[in-house]
Amino acid sequence: MIKTGSQILVDALIREGAEYVFGIPGGAVLPLFDALFDSSIKFILTRHEQGAGHAADGYARATGKVGVCLATSGPGATNLTTAIATAYMDSIPIVAITGQVKTFLIGNDAFQEADIIGITRPITKHSYLVKDIKDLARIVKEAFFIANTGRRGPVLIDLPVDVTMEKCEEVIPTVVDLPGYKPRYEGNIRQIMIAAEAINSSRQPVVYTGGGIIASECSKDLLEFAEKGNLPVTTTLMGLGGFPETHHLSLGMLGMHGTAYANFAVTESDVLVAIGARFDDRITGKIDEFAPNAKIIHVDIDPASISKSIRVDIPVVGDAKNILQELNKHIHFVERKEWLDKIKYWKEKNPLSYNNSGNVIKPQYVIEQICDAAKGNAIITTEVGQNQMWAAQYFTFTQPRTFLSSGGLGTMGYGFPAAIGAQLGCPDKLVVDIAGDGSIQMNIQELSTVARLNIPVKIAILNNGYLGMVRQWQELFYNKRYSSVNLNGNPDFVKLAEAYGAKGFLVEKKEDVRPTIEKAFSIKGPVIMDFRIDPNENVFPMVPAGQAIHRMIGTMA
């Protein structure tokens, strides 16, 4: 059948299971939008391309499917770059489709031309510039395959407008054949056996897990592994929800703002089992004091991540699910009473805590009330800063794909559009964005998107009148020289919500926190809750930059 390039693209997206496409139209993609007009794909018109990219990312994280976003050439494409980089750093599968000027104009500085392939090369897993319509169907199939296999990540398809208007006989590809791309899924059995022996003989083991547990859908396998071996488990920010925090073997999150007992346990461990985590600097702190006495086992699907920053004793390359299932055949229960008693002591001496006396609203209290009102059964997205860390610390995560946040890039403005994608992907779930008054304003224009489509996301703004995390650093390390962090001139968020057609509530009294949350949750539409919190509250514990992770501020030890 003869089809235009636009029709071929849309049909290819449908074959790949694309349910939603997020974006904004423009000149170079008008033929695509004409084809989308008659398709089954639901196009979500956002108010900024960055919002579209984050929405595709949130959809991918919440569902495990590939998210899709679409932008026009030039500024439309460049506006996607922050969202693409966010997905790349956190290994999230999205396909970003950008319009491009006509093929014969590429390189001529044509109107709204940008070399988006060159711009995004360091932040994509792969990219395509489509010059021949006959390649288009194959490229789309390959893009989805590359994005959602191996170490997942974003793939970009740059599509000149003349290619979308050309016609040809559609050839539907049935297989993907990429000789240079062969992700390894099965771990080396000898390495797995060596790892199992080291774990079984350890006296003070710790399992350290990241986003790879969630990407590989192996939370149940991890739980079996921990219980079978009697192994305490700590998670990264990206790994939250991969292991239930209600479990007695849970150590919570580790690292710069992790629990004291997780950081102490890692420091004193004799075997550290890293699964689907990459030893980033927020986790390791001072590298030469990180788990100094531990034999380190590293399970990761990406061989480039192994021994990248930390020397690894037993590397195992492959998919976390497959390797955990194999490990579970060889792990046996070891009592380790002395070690677990020591961890229990650390938990009792250094719990996560804050001063909740008085009438001032504490941000930690707001998070606890959201968690309790949601009965722990919600998808939480966050912005970046203090709001992100308080959410990670004080919401109790028990299920995977329920915590969505920008980890590697630390992108302010991520949480709200990500919540949109998550809500559309999981329509029966409660989705709450935990935001700061600074970060929410980076993509607040998407209030138009949620109000217009009645997408029922809830936004909890922890409003302290500051760029809170920057203020905290200036307080602790720059002699309280508060340079350019006071957000005086913030809008009235309630009026702003109402101006867009959403509901808004102002909360200034502690006794109003829980009733407002319950009221917001009962409303079948988008809601902003503006909580006026203690402006001087800091996130603790905290590891100062460059220090060892057991040298924390804000602990008893």
What is the makeup of the main sheet?
6 strands, parallel
- General shape: globular
Looking at how many chains there are and whether they match, the oligomeric state comes to: single chain
Strand order of the largest sheet: 3-2-4-5-7-6
Per CATH, the architecture of the largest domain is: 3-Layer(aba) Sandwich
**Are there runs of 5+ residues with pLDDT below 50, and where?**
none
Computed Rg: 24 Å
CATH topology grouping of the largest domain: Rossmann fold
The number of helices is 22
Task: Kindly describe this structure.
By secondary structure, the chain is α/β, with parallel strands linked by helices. It folds into 3 domains: 2-169, Rossmann fold, CATH 3.40.50; 189-349, Rossmann fold (3-Layer(aba) Sandwich); 363-532, Thiamin diphosphate (ThDP)-binding fold, Pyr/PP domains (Rossmann fold), CATH 3.40.50.970. 35% of the residues lie in helices and 17% in strands. The chain is built from 22 helices and 20 strands. The strands form 4 sheets. A 6-stranded parallel beta sheet has the order 3-2-4-5-7-6, with helices on both faces. α22 (513-522) links the parallel β19 (503-507) and β20. α16 packs across α22. The radius of gyration is 24 Å and the shape is globular.
